[in-house]
Amino acid sequence: MIDPQGVIYVSKSNDLSIFLGDYGPSFVRTAYLLTGDQDRARSLAIDSLVKVCRRWTAVRANGPALVVLSELYRRFLAADVPPPATYPLGVLPPRTRAAFVARHHDALHPQQVATMTGVWTGDLDRELHQAHAHLQATHPELFPAAPQPPSEAAAPPEEHEVAPSGEHHPGWATPFEERDPGQAAPPEEQRPEWVAPFEERAPGQAAPSGEHHPEWAAPFEERDPGQAAPSGEHRPEWAAPSPQHAEPHARDGAGPRGGLVALVTALPATHTDVAGAVLARITRGRRIRVATWTTVSVGTLSAFVALVVAGVNSMATTFEQAMTSPTSSYTPPSVEEEEAELPGLLPAKLDDPIQYAWQGYCRSEGENNANDPRPCAQWRLQTTSGNEWRLGGARAGYDEDSGVTMPLAISQDGRRLAYRQLTGQYAVRDLPTGVVKLIDVRDAQVAPHLTVSPNGRFFSVDFGLSDGATLDFDTGVTHYEYGQEVHILGVTDDGTRAVAQQRNVSDVPGHASLTTFHLNGLTALEGGYRIDPGLIDLGGAVSPDGRTLALITADSELVTMDGRTGRMGGPRTDLSDYDLIAVERWVREDEVLVRSWDDDDYVALTKVNVKSGDITEVTGDWVEWLDYGSPLGAVRP
Q1: Cα(43)–Cα(29) distance, integer angstroms
Q2: Beta-ladder partners of 404
Q3: How far apart are CA 228 and CA 206, in angstroms?
Q4: Region annotation Disordered: residue ranges (predicted)?
């Protein structure tokens, strides 16, 4: 459940993995209440989280829980798959079921419920009341009645009037709405169309003459035991049980949320823990799809032909889901079989530059420790000549204990690597010589971010919550940035760092925090002006001359900013058609490389000319192998 306003604000210092660990189980529970099927609920929650969290940098500070819920409800309503016959909430139509869950389980505001489910706010209260009452009548075990005073409990059952002949009732509607016993409806009462019509009247009182009941009206009011339905009245199959079997309406302390909570208690922890599956889907990308082709047997020729007709992407997606599904019949290879197929360990010295890297994926069963990954889960390094190596001695993957995803950075010439060692220290390794130097910084148990200068001399690390540090590889000296929240956006070839710092304030009208920008050189400090904090959500890149930054606004426009004055220059290139991930680097004095998702949920690279605004797609076989977090090295877009 999220807060009544439907917004969970996650600060920039929080990592995606923390959000998934904290809120992922709640999304699975919501999905289960909607679908009534454990496996389908897990799949629905994972698909929704993957879709939203691929844009994590854009949504993390703007209510990510609400964005995920919107995607989850949209997918559920679009699928229109019937729930299991035994599922209690299955008696409600999908849209009403969604509104009931959104209001009572997720505690969303009525306007948010209406927006997500399409139920008009004027009808919402009525539909929720009818749904609750019908569930009480058909599944009283979900809503145990609160204890009643002895005098009330001993009172004889009330008599109720007969529903009018020929009245039409929707398939899920509740039998009746309550009114104080014996209280009659005012004769002059005019019921607008959105008001539930059939309230209880005094025993024996007839409905007002000419009373009109819209089609959604609550239909079957309770009758005395044994009383027959009026002549010609049709009682549909969904109607509430007769009064001798129906439970009274829930009173204080027995609300609908208790019933929903009772339904989700049976969900096993293996179904609600989705953080690892979501992160794997986000980071594996195309490479898992290719691995699927080589490791999963199609079975028969006819099945293969059918899958090909269905389309390569559909087949790969189906296989990927099958591989991660708890009910899958796929038998992964043994550890020995898989390790026999792995590339060799990176040698002590290597003259072949690294083009890009990606994290390995273990197809064999068994948990992986990101702090000491199995060989199949280590970083893989692809060289410019096409050779592939494993990076031993480095942490890789998502650490469930700290909620941190381990980083890797490659210099633009592909000859130096920065990573987190198994000991926890941050190291920079020069491949041609084999020399390793350490960044003299204390590790923080939050998401680290590595930045490298174009010439590969300077490597920076920051943690978002604390100080940052930059290693000069040539001298072995570490330089520091101090502050409350430090983000090192880029480093120039002379060691100048583009640094954004955020601090909390209480004396600046209209601001809870301020973000300032500095250019910190080896001997000088420039800048110190405020910037829009949204400009750094997708990172940034410093131009080769060290004067200009390429940034992306909250409106998905690529802009350039003079690092010394803060003034914006050049055209504002609209990239709203792209599902942006990050600003990568400057590739020429007037071109910036941007990473995004394409229409098929694969990583795409785009060059933007900062002077003309022209956009050029980067093509090549190597691009098709990139994943969400694949570090780039010696590439020539």
Answers
A1: 12
A2: 399
A3: 16
A4: 142-190, 202-257
Domain boundaries defined on the chain:
16-143+267-271, 285-320, 337-539
pLDDT tens-digit readout, 115-168: 888 888 778 888 888 888 888 888 887 776 555 555 444 444 443 333 343 444
| pLDDT tens per residue across span 283-324 | 654 444 444 433 333 343 344 333 333 443 443 343 344 444
In sequence order, what are the residues at sequence separation of 6 or more whose Cβ sits closer than 8 angstroms to the Cβ of residue 141? none
Longest Cα pair distance anywhere in the chain, in angstroms? 98
Partners of residue 593 on adjacent β-strands? 585, 607
Domain 16-143+267-271, CATH: 1.20.140.160
pTM of the model: 0.60
Q: Please check the confidence at residue 47 and state whether its pLDDT lies above 60.
A: yes
User: With the C-alpha atoms ordered 128, 134, 137, 143, is the resulting torsion angle positive or negative?
Assistant: negative
326: confidence class by pLDDT, cuts 50, 70, 90: very low
Confidence of residue 193 (pLDDT cuts 50, 70, 90): very low
502 phi and psi angles, rounded to 5 deg: -115, 140
**Residue 427 in tokens:** 């190291």
DSSP symbols for 488-548: EEEE-TT--EEEEEEEE-SSSTT-SEEEEEEEE-SS-EEEEEE--GGGGTT--EE-TTSSE
Contact 460, 488 (CB under 8 A): yes
584 closest CA partner among 613, 615, 614, 605:
605
The rounded distance, in Å, linking the Cα atoms of 566 and 516 is 10
Q: Which two tokens stand for residue 157?
A: 């059952």
C-alpha dist (Å) from residue 135 to 140, 175, 229, 320, 575: 7, 10, 22, 38, 48
Helix-helix angle 110-117:121-138, to 10 degrees: 90
First to last CA, the chain: 45
Phi-psi region of 339 (alpha: psi -120 to 50; beta: other; left: phi over 0): alpha
Alpha-carbon gap, residue 19 to 405, rounded angstroms: 13
Q: Strand order in 497-504's β-sheet?
A: 485-491, 497-504, 513-520, 525-530
Q: Which two tokens stand for residue 8?
A: 């969970």
The string of pLDDT tens digits covering residues 528-582 is: 899 988 898 888 999 988 889 999 998 899 999 999 899 998 899 999 888 888 9
Buried b (16+ CB within 10 A) or exposed e, 560-590: bbebeeeeeebbebebeebbbbbbbbbbeee
